[in-house]
Structures are given as structure tokens and as C-alpha cells.
Amino acid sequence: MKYQALILVIAILFSTLMLHALVAEERSVLSTPPLPESITRLGTYTVPSLAQKNKFQTASFRELPVDVPLQEPSPQGETSVVEKPSVGSIASSCSLSVAAYLVKDITHGKIIVSKNETGSRPIASVSKLMTTLVAMESMQSEAVITVSENAHALAEGYASLEVGASYTVQDLIRAALVVSSNDATYALAESFGFDTFVTRMNEKAKEIGMRQTIFTEPSGLSYLNQSTVSDLALLLAYIYQTQPTLLAITREKIVPIMNQTRQRTIRLLNVNYFAGTKNFIGGKTGFINESGGNLVALFHENSSVWAVEVLGSDDRFADLSRLLLCAQKMKQ
């Protein structure tokens, strides 16, 4: 009888344990698992480093430098994560973390949105729009110019052409616009007469109505080359109306030039992210430490042409895209 009672107790304990196990298993199956990190962080993005932002600006010819000094990515663990702004928040405020911006309908002469539109700032390689405009208007396009050691040295490490090689004025203009070649601009100015060329740049600015603009050299390496988003819109409009070939050069993804000395064709990869994209008419990038990232451009917008500009940006291509989107929303 004792043994039967013992066996009964053991059976009851075993049944109880099995029941608890089944209940626990059922709860596990029915409970909602935690969302994976990729889903919980769907509304955020990782801010790229400056090198990542500008990785598309690596030159395609030898080691052609561009107007953005590439920096090492941030050390692991220091990459920040921020909220990705919604379209609605951008449209309602146009609040961009840039020093100055402007969207102007140059077809109708109306400013759509702006910030610090008359504040003078270093414009860096945006200066090359005026440099190439003066060269186009004042020099023979097929004239051949040799790149001197002095022109190469003045480029301060951002040279892209071979010392002693000869190029046509037209090809030096292309190099200046497409890969922001500093030695190309100095070669142009030297051939014309350096001081005379810079004087002509400033005279042209006054002719266009750029009252708050000054140039001290042709490349934009000097922070003393300064302008405003309002003045730069006038420059873009003038080029669009009188020298559209310059803008056509800037929207090509790949542009060939000829080294006349070696009789060798060089293919230049455009440093502008917008080159070849829909509605992009043309424009110019610029960067020095004193200016931050600059970008000015023209876009087709319905039946109008818009000048869209950002100065002093940490991510000029993204900021200009956001600014264009903002202006489009405001016009709806």
C-alpha cells in the first residue's frame, strides 16, 4: 500500500511538471518577439563622414584632385545618428544648417526663399564661373597655352594638369569647370596677364550688377574671393543668357580634353553629383576651409529656370536637394 501511494505521488508530481512546461511553451509561442534593430531604427540614418559624402568626387584621370579635401572617416563609434527630417518639416521652415541659401526664379525675377541673401562669404571654386566666363569672352578658344611651373605651384597641391603640357583655352575651361582644376585657371590668367585678368573679373562682376562681389585671384583658393547668394544668382542668369556653353560643360558626366604636347586625350569625370541628372542645367561646386561647402546651380522647374544655391554647407549636395524640394513645396 505504501508503494502504491508513493507511485501515485510521483505520478502527480510528474503530471504537474509536464503541465507547467506546456504552459510555458504556449506562452513563448504566443508572445510577440522584440522588433529587430533594423526595424526599430527605420526612421533614422547614419550621418556620413565628409570623405563618404564626397566619395563620388574622386577624379577619373590619374590623381586629379578636386576642390574638396578628402578627410579620414570618423573613428569607429563616433558616428552620430540623427532623425531624418520629414518632407513636411522641410517645406514648412526651409531650415537648413547652412550660412546662406537662395532659390530664385530667374525667368520671372522672383526670389522664392532665401537666407542671408546679401551676406558676403568666401565662395571658393564657385569663382571659376567668373574665371571661365572672362576666358570665354576675352580669349580665343583654340589658342594653345602651356601650363607653367608657376601655375602648377600656385594651385597649392590641387593641380590636375601636367607641367609643360599644352592645352587649348577651351580645354582649360573644361578642366576648370569639370574637375575644378586650379592650375587650369592660373594658366588662363597667366596667358592673358594675371593682374589684367583679375581686373577683368571684377569689371565683369560690376557689369552684371554684382555689387557685393570681389575677386583677388582666378581659382577661389583665397578666402578673399567673396560674394553673396544674391550676386551669384545674377552671375548664373548672365551665363545662362549669354554663354550657355559653360553650363553645358558642367552638366556632362565625362568631358574629354587633349594634351596637345603628348597628343593624348584625357577623360575628366565631373565632380558635380548633379551632372547628367534630370532638369539640371549646370552649376559649380566650391570648397575651402574658410567657406565650407558651396554649390550653385540652375534647374528647369516647369516653365521656369531656378537658381538654387547653398553656401557654407557641411553636405552641399544633400542640402541643395532639400532646398529645391522645399521651394517646390512652397510653390504648390
Report on this model:
- The chain has 332 residues and is α+β, with helices and mostly antiparallel strands.
- The chain has a single domain, classed as Beta-lactamase.
- Helices cover 40% and strands 21% of the residues.
- The chain contains twelve helices and 13 strands.
- It has helices spanning 2-30, 37-40, 50-53, 87-93, 128-138, 149-154, 169-178, 182-192, 194-208, 229-242, 244-250, 316-331; strands at residues 44-46, 81-83, 100-105, 110-115, 121-122, 144-146, 166-168, 226-227, 254-259, 264-269, 280-288, 292-301, 304-313.
- It has a five-stranded antiparallel sheet, sandwiched between helices. A two-stranded antiparallel ribbon has the order 1-2. Strands 5-8 form a two-stranded antiparallel sheet.
- A hairpin with a 3-residue loop joins strand 11 and strand 12 (292-301).
- Helix 8 (182-192) packs across helix 9 (194-208).
- It is globular, with a radius of gyration of 29 Å.
Keyword list:
Beta-lactamase; alpha+beta; 21% strand; 332 residues; 13 strands
Mean pLDDT: 79
Task: Let me know the number of strands.
Answer: 13
Looking at the overall shape, the CATH architecture is: 3-Layer(aba) Sandwich
Tell me the Rg in angstroms: 29 Å
Question: Which spans have pLDDT < 50 for at least 5 consecutive residues?
Answer: 18-92
Task: Note the topology.
Elements: H1 2-30, H2 37-40, E1 44-46, H3 50-53, E2 81-83, H4 87-93, E3 100-105, E4 110-115, E5 121-122, H5 128-138, E6 144-146, H6 149-154, E7 166-168, H7 169-178, H8 182-192, H9 194-208, E8 226-227, H10 229-242, H11 244-250, E9 254-259, E10 264-269, E11 280-288, E12 292-301, E13 304-313, H12 316-331
Antiparallel strand pairs: 1-2, 3-4, 3-13, 5-8, 6-7, 9-10, 11-12, 12-13
